[in-house]
Write a structure and sequence with these properties.
single chain; 166 residues; alpha/beta; Rossmann fold; 6 helices; 25% strand; globular; disordered N terminus; binds S-adenosylmethionine
Length: 166
């Protein structure tokens, strides 16, 4: 039985809270460009048996991330750009949040081999939403769920999509 909202991950603000709420349960999952690691932490707190791979593109931010998640059980840190550090890892889904739509498109396109092995991808661009959504439609990703959290007077369109089969 999950605890009441806000009881276990009290510092998750609406933008990341929407990611947590849209992320399907079950894993392993990746949080790409995890930064502070707040979402990765919330995912394992919600589901203690979950395996999460939290990534950062470079060593500096990865050191911050390591400090952020400390030695939290279930979280493995991987360093490298985009989906590259996820190659060869069995994963069910991936979150890419807090980057521009153009960057997210580049990450998905460069990591097509990784994307094809995923059941879902959760995307939350900071800008460039139309560009991202057009690309997703063109590449036949299927929309499974969407949310529009508001934080600090800004709306953050968030989508859960399934990659095209085969
Ligand atoms: C604004 S933060 C967002 C952090 C968190 N995902 C969130 O939504 O709050 C963006 C993070 O993505 C990382 N990043 C940017 N480009 C990346 C890439 N190509 N691959 C992996 N991480 C990347 C940055 O280092 C930064 O830590």
């Amino acid at each position: 039985m999950p605890p009441a909202a806000g009881a276990v991950w009290p510092r998750l603000r609406p933008r990341l809270r929407a990611c947590l709420d849209l992320a399907p349960r079950g894993g392993p999952v990746a949080d790409v460009g995890s930064a502070h690691g707040r979402l990765a932490l919330a995912l394992v707190r919600r589901e203690p048996s979950l395996a999460v791979v939290a990534t950062e593109a470079r060593a500096g931010p990865a050191a911050e991330l390591r400090r952020g998640v400390a030695a939290s059980a279930g979280i493995v840190i991987a360093v490298g750009p985009g989906l590259a550090p996820l190659r060869g890892r069995p994963l069910r889904g991936a979150v890419i949040a807090g980057m521009g739509g153009r960057t997210i498109v580049a990450i998905l396109a460069d990591g097509d081999d990784v994307v094809q092995g995923l059941s879902w991808v959760l995307l939350q661009p900071m800008q460039g939403t139309d560009l991202l959504h057009t690309w997703l439609r063109r590449h036949r990703f299927r929309l499974r769920a969407a949310a529009r959290p508001v934080e600090g007077g800004r709306t953050y369109p968030t989508v859960l999509v399934a990659p095209p089969c085969g």
